[in-house]
C-alpha cells in the first residue's frame, strides 16, 4: 500500500508524460520509495520534520538544484524546455530518488496565465482591484480557489499570483493586479485569495515585496520611505496577508528600497519577513530580480528565478568557500521542501483534467456582481425593461467583448492559441454587453451599437435612442504606467459628445484603476466594472437592469485630477518615453538609479492624503451606491475598543448588500492626524428590515509602529471611532478611552 502510494507521488507529482514517468521510475529504481525507508513520506509527521529528514539525504548538487529555476523556458523563444516543464513562468526540477516532485510555477494573478501543455482554457476572473471592491473575504477566497482549482487541473503546483502592493500610485500599470490603497483591506482580501489557492493543495504566493508601487523604471528605482511609514503602509498589508494565508512563497520585487535591492535587503527579508513575522516559506525572486550570490543569500533570498545566474555554480562555490554557510543553504532548501509538504503538493499532487469552463465562468460572474461599483445614479438606474424602448450602446468592443489587463497577468482568451496572447497588446474576452443588454431589454426594444471611434457618429446614434450607454476602457499592463489619470484615446470627448446628444447617458468603465471623469456632471449614471472577467457582460447587464443590486465600494480614491495627488507626475516618467515606458533597454531597465520619494506622503496613502490636505476627490475611498438606502444608528464601542456594534437598516424597497465601514482616529500622541480603516462587515439586509452588526477590531489596527523598539504598540488615550457607508459619509461617532499601552 505504502509502496503504491509513493509511486503515485513520484509519477503524478511531476505531472509528466509517460516517458518521463518511466524515466523517473528508472532514476528511483535504486531507492525504495516507501515511508518505511523514506521517513519523510509519513504524513503523520509535521512539514518541518519531514523536510529535515529529506534535506538530510540530499547531496550538495541536489540542494543547489532546488534553489534556482531552470531558465526562461516557454517565456522566451529558443530557450530549452525541460520534459517536466508544464508551460508556466517557472520550473524547478524535483529529485525523483527522494520522491520530491518538480515545482511548476504559474503566473496566475487574475486566472492561470498561458494554458499548460495539452490544456486549452483558464477562467479570466475580474481584476483583483475589482474583487477587493466587493469587500467580501468569501469572494476573495472563492477567487483564489478558482485559481487553485484550475492550476491543479492543469498540472501546476505553485501559483505566483497574489499581488499585494499598495495602490500608492493610481497610474501604476499593475493596479488591476493589486487590491487597494488601504493596507488592511489589501492584506485581508489578498490573504484570503492566497488561502483559496492553497486550499487546493497548490503552493500560494504573495508579491511583489516591497514597494513595487509603479512600473516606470521598476528595475532601477529606489523607493525611499521612512521605516515607520513603510511598516504602517506597504509592509502592513504583507504582514496581514502572510499571517492569514501562510503562503509557501513571497516574491521579492525588482526595485530597491532605501538603497538595497528588495531581493537582497537584510531589513526586508531576514529582519522583518522572517524574523519579526515568522514567515516559514521561501522567498523567490521576481524574474531576474536577483543581483548577487552571497549578499542575496545572506539577506534571505531562498530561490532565484527564472535562471541560474547567481544561485547555481556561484552559490555552490560560495558554500564550499564558506562564504555562505552550509546551514544557510540547508535552510533555503528546508523552506522550499517544508512548503511543499505543508501545501500538500507531495501528498496530494495535481491531477490533470480539463478545466470546467462553466463553473469558472459562474464563479467569475458571481465575484463581478459583488465588485461592480455604482458611482452615480441620477434616477436613471436600474433600467426598466418595459419602459426602455431603444438603447444606443456605444464604445470599445461593447458589441462583443470585455477588456482584460496585460503583462504576466494576461490570461489567454478562449479560442486563441494557448500562450498566444501577445505582450503589449490589449486582449478582449468574448462576453458581449450588447447580447446581454438586449436580452434584458427584451425583443420589443431596439438596441443599436456604435464603436465610438467617431464622436460625431456616436452622438448621432445616441440622439436617436431613449438611453445611451457608453463603454469606456483604459488598457493597463505590467511594464508601463499611465502618464495621466485621463481615459486614453480621447474617450472623454466621446462621452461629452454622447452626453450632449442624449440627456439619459450612462457610462460603464472598464479600467485598471482610478481615472478622471471631466464629464461626470453631465451624465446620469456611472458604473465602474474594472476589468470584469469572463462573466463580465452578464454581471454588467444584471446591474444595469436591477437583477443584481450593486454593492461594491471603491478600494481606492478616485482623484479629480493629478494636481491633487502627492506626486502630480509619475516619478521618472519623462517625455522621451515610448509607450509610457522609459527608453530603457529591452528588459525595461534604466541605466541609472533614480529615487522615488514616498516620504512626500509617507503614511498618508490614498484617502489619508486627501483628508489631511483637505482635498475633495471625485469619488472617495469606500464609496459606492445601491438601489436601496441604508440608515446607521446606535454605535457602541466596548471599553477595550476590541469590538464595535451598531444597527443598519435598509430603508428602501429592495433587498441589498451593504458594506459597513469602521474608521478610527488614534490618540493625538500617535502623530497620525487622519482616520483610517479599522474594520468592516459586508451584510445582506432585506428591504425594510434592520440588522445589528458587530465588527471585531484587531488591536494591530489601532497600533502604531514604534521604530525605537522595532515593535507595534497601542497607545493609551482617546480613540475616535466613526462608522458609515463610505470614508466620506460616517454618521456614527464614539470616543473611547483606552488605558495602558498594549
Ligand atoms: C513579473 C512577475 C511575474 C514574473 C514571471 C515578472 O516580470 O513582475 O509578477 O510573476 O515576471 O512571469
Quick gist of this model?
About 25% of the residues lie in helices and about 20% in strands. It has 19 helices and 27 strands.
List the helices and strands and how they pair.
Layout: H1 2-13, H2 18-27, H3 47-56, H4 60-66, E1 90-92, E2 103-106, H5 128-133, H6 137-153, E3 158-159, H7 183-198, E4 205-209, E5 221-224, H8 227-232, H9 234-245, E6 249-252, E7 256-257, E8 260-261, H10 267-276, E9 282-285, H11 294-299, H12 313-320, H13 326-343, H14 357-371, E10 373-377, E11 390-395, E12 401-403, E13 428-430, H15 433-441, E14 446-450, H16 455-463, E15 467-473, H17 491-501, E16 505-510, E17 525-528, H18 536-544, E18 594-597, H19 607-612, E19 630-637, E20 643-650, E21 656-665, E22 676-685, E23 690-696, E24 704-706, E25 711-713, E26 717-724, E27 732-738
Parallel strand pairs: 2-3, 4-6, 5-7, 5-18, 6-9, 11-14, 11-15, 15-16, 16-17
Antiparallel strand pairs: 1-2, 7-8, 10-17, 12-13, 19-20, 20-23, 21-22, 21-26, 24-25, 26-27
Task: Describe the 3D structure.
There is one protein chain. With 742 residues, this protein is α/β, with parallel strands linked by helices. The chain folds into three domains: 57-343, TIM Barrel; 370-544, Glycoside hydrolase family 3 C-terminal domain (Rossmann fold), CATH 3.40.50.1700; 630-738, Immunoglobulins (Immunoglobulin-like, Sandwich), CATH 2.60.40. The chain is built from 19 helices and 27 strands. The strands form eight sheets. It has a six-stranded mixed sheet with strand order 10-17-16-15-11-14, with helices on both faces. Strands 8-7-5-18 form a four-stranded mixed sheet, with no helix packed on it. A four-stranded antiparallel sheet has the order 22-21-26-27, with no helix packed on it. Strand 7 (256-257) and strand 8 (260-261) form a beta hairpin. The longest helix is centred in the middle third of the chain and has 18 residues, at 326-343. It is globular. The N and C termini lie far apart (53 Å). The structure holds beta-D-glucopyranose. Beta-D-glucopyranose (BGC) is lined by residues 89, 107, 160, 207, 286-287, 408, 478. The site of beta-D-glucopyranose (BGC) has 8 residues, from loops.
